[in-house]
Specification:
There is one protein chain. This protein is α/β, with parallel strands linked by helices. The protein contains 8 helices and 5 strands, in the order βαβααβααβααβα. It has helices at 22-33, 49-60, 65-89, 100-110, 115-126, 141-151, 162-178, 192-211; strands at 10-14, 39-43, 93-97, 133-138, 183-187. Strands 2-3-1-4-5 form a 5-stranded parallel sheet, with helices on both faces.
Length: 212
C-alpha cells in the first residue's frame, strides 16, 4: 500500500489595498516551486467559477453590509470546498491572496459588522481550514491611498474613506497580535528586495518544517 500523501500547506497574503502584497505573491509561489513543491495560486473573493461571479458583484454592485458579508462567505465556501481543500489533500501548497482575515478587517473593522457573527460564519463555512502562515503587509492608510490612486480606477472597496482604512488596519494589527504564531507582519514601506529577503527566509523555514 502506498504511503498517504502529506497534506499541503496553506499560505495567505493580507493587507489593505495598496500595501504591496500583490507584488510578491507570484514571486513567492515561484520560490516554493523551486523547492520542488506543487503550488496553487488563488484569490479571494474568487478562486472558483462561482466565487469569481460573486467577486464581480462584490467589487462592483451596491449592496447593504449584511448582503456583502454573506456573499463573501458564500464565495469562500465554494472556494474552500471546490479548490482549496482538494489541493491541500493532494499535497499541494495553496498561496491565497486574502482569506477570512480580510473579512475580519474589511467587514468587521471597516463596516462595523459584529466580530462574533463573523467568527460564527467562519466556523460554519470553513472550520478547520485556516492558513498555516499569513503574511500581513502593513502600511499607513494615506500611503496606501496614494499608491491605489496611481494604479487604477478604484473598485467599491478601494473608494472607501480614510477612516474606513484606519479601522481596517487596526483590526489587521489586532489579529496579528492575537495570532502571532500564524502571522508575519511585513513593513510595506520597505524595498521589494528587502521584503523578498524576509519572505525567502521565512518560506525556507516553512518548507523545512513541513518536510521534517
Amino acid at each position: 500500500m502506498s504511503a498517504p500523501v502529506p497534506r499541503g500547506r496553506f499560505v495567505s497574503f493580507e493587507g489593505m489595498d495598496g500595501a504591496g502584497k500583490s507584488t510578491h505573491i507570484a514571486w513567492f509561489a515561484a520560490r516554493l516551486r523551486s523547492f520542488g513543491l506543487e503550488v496553487l495560486e488563488t484569490r479571494e473573493p474568487g478562486g472558483s467559477e462561482l466565487a469569481e461571479s460573486l467577486r464581480a458583484l462584490l467589487l462592483g454592485s451596491p449592496m447593504d453590509d449584511v448582503t456583502e458579508l454573506l456573499l463573501m462567505f458564500a464565495a469562500r465556501r465554494d472556494h474552500v470546498v471546490g479548490v482549496i481543500e482538494p489541493a491541500l489533500r493532494a499535497g499541494r501548497w495553496v498561496v491565497c491572496d486574502r482569506f477570512t482575515d480580510s473579512t475580519r478587517a474589511y467587514q468587521g473593522g471597516g463596516r462595523h459588522m459584529s466580530s462574533e457573527r463573523i467568527e460564527w460564519l467562519a466556523d460554519w463555512v470553513h472550520a478547520g481550514t485556516w492558513p498555516d502562515r499569513t503574511y500581513l503587509f502593513d502600511l499607513a492608510p494615506e500611503v496606501a491611498a496614494r499608491r491605489r490612486s496611481a494604479a487604477r480606477a478604484p473598485d467599491r472597496f478601494e473608494a472607501e474613506t480614510a477612516a474606513f482604512f484606519e479601522r481596517v488596519r487596526e483590526v489587521y494589527l489586532a489579529c496579528s497580535a492575537k495570532e502571532a504564531s500564524r502571522f508575519a507582519v511585513i513593513d510595506g514601506t520597505e524595498s521589494v528586495e528587502t521584503i523578498r529577503g524576509r519572505l525567502d527566509d521565512d518560506l525556507a523555514r516553512l518548507v523545512a518544517t513541513a518536510r521534517a
